[in-house]
């Protein structure tokens, strides 16, 4: 038996429990019957979207019972999934993504550098 794509959301609804079911039931009627909308909402709620993987990548720390190779593999998976969901497919896109991430930190450091430089010159 082959399922029709239009029926995915209703099949999924019967399997959901707990908080996932609450997220599903909070959707409006139009979205509740659209599988892609349900999927996107549930993934976002539990941090399995682009921003969630970005956050997991930047905040990842090794657990006490995790060896280095396992930790690196886990962080690499977060990074790969973040790039995939951010639709990064070439070096230029990757460069833009990285520069966009470091820009706020660089701006803050440059401001601090200028303050220090001007206070030194004015003294």
Automatic annotation (TrEMBL):
<protein>
    <submittedName>
        <fullName>Zinc finger protein</fullName>
    </submittedName>
</protein>
